[in-house]
Structure formats: structure tokens, C-alpha cells
Write a structure and sequence with these properties.
The protein has 171 residues and is α+β, with helices and mostly antiparallel strands. The chain contains six helices and eight strands. It has a four-stranded antiparallel β-sheet with strand order 1-2-3-4. It has a two-stranded antiparallel ribbon with strand order 5-6. Strand 3 (54-56) and strand 4 (63-65) form a beta hairpin. The structure holds zinc ion.
Length: 171
């Protein structure tokens, strides 16, 4: 990779958001505890979203669409039920079924986690880049570049973190 490309790539990291990686999310299967995948059309909530988000496990055959998961009934008392769902993005469970992420590991008194292997590669590349020069004013709010916790970018944790990445990449 040329120096210029590398710089461009590192800069792009600051524009990317964790939400961009909510595609195929690797999770622990609720039935067999092996690796399952929550497939989503992205964090977009387009029409028919609840039918398109599904958890599938190729090990035990578990398969569930989001619509099948109970939503919260607000008990409106009217004939039309008023229900809603709470999504939990950017934490160690998948945002939809709340299943534990497959790619997570205790690291430096915190948890290193990723939704999928692309996300993992992205974080690793970004942390390794060591490029900390940036114009904070230009950073979008949710960009990974602006949101990476300090323990992840601390030089003293670097070796441990990279080891944890290796463990996850082989998982
Ligand atoms: Zn399973």
C-alpha cells in the first residue's frame, strides 16, 4: 500500500461509524452456543425491516426472524396494540435479539468486541495506524475515529490489544 493510500484509508476511518458494520452480526447461538449470524439489511429500518432481520445458525438449524420476537406491549387497552422495540447498538450484544456477540474478549479491564470480521479488521487496522492527527471539528459524531476509547489507543495496552485481536480473528 502506498503511503498516500494508507493516509486516505486512515482518514476514512474517522468517517466510518459502528453502525456501518451492523450487517452480518456474529453471535452466540441461543440454542447450541455455537456461532450463529444475525443477518440484517443494515441499521436502516426500511420497510419490512422486522422480516429481514433474522438469526440463523448453520450448526443446529436455529432460525428466527425479528418479527417473531416479542415486542414490548404498552397495554394501550385499544383494539390496535401499541408495541415498540428497543434496539441496543454499539454494545456487546446484537442490537436486535440481544444475543451475546461471538467476537468479544476481556481485554485491559474492558471488553474488546466487534460485530463481524470486517469490523474486527477495521478496528485493528485503525488502532495499528497510530495516526492520531486529525481535525476534531470535522469528525462526525458517531465516527469510530472519534469514539475509540482511550484504553484502545493507549500505547501501553497496544501489545495486549493486538494479542486479543489475534485470538478473535482465529475464533
Ligand atoms: Zn445453533
Amino acid at each position: 500500500m502506498s503511503c498516500k493510500n494508507f493516509m486516505t484509508r486512515a482518514k476514512d476511518a474517522y468517517k466510518k461509524s459502528v453502525y456501518d458494520f451492523i450487517t452480518d452480526i456474529y453471535v452466540v447461538c441461543p440454542k447450541c452456543s455455537k456461532q450463529a449470524i444475525v443477518k440484517t439489511p443494515g441499521y436502516s429500518f426500511k420497510i419490512d425491516f422486522e422480516n429481514k432481520v433474522k438469526c440463523v445458525c448453520s450448526n443446529c438449524g436455529h432460525s428466527k426472524i425479528l418479527r417473531e420476537k416479542a415486542s414490548i406491549d404498552l397495554g394501550s387497552g385499544s383494539k390496535l396494540p401499541i408495541t415498540y422495540r428497543i434496539y441496543h447498538p454499539a454494545t456487546t450484544i446484537d442490537p436486535f435479539f440481544y444475543l451475546p456477540l461471538w467476537l468479544k474478549i476481556d481485554c485491559c479491564n474492558n471488553v474488546l468486541w466487534a460485530y463481524n470480521y470486517d469490523h474486527l479488521d477495521f478496528l485493528k487496522t485503525h488502532i495499528k495506524a497510530k495516526l492520531r492527527e486529525r481535525n476534531d471539528a470535522e469528525l462526525p459524531n458517531h465516527s469510530i475515529g472519534s469514539r475509540l476509547p482511550r484504553w484502545m489507543t493507549s500505547k501501553k495496552n497496544r501489545d495486549i490489544i493486538l494479542k486479543c485481536f489475534e485470538v478473535l480473528q482465529k475464533k
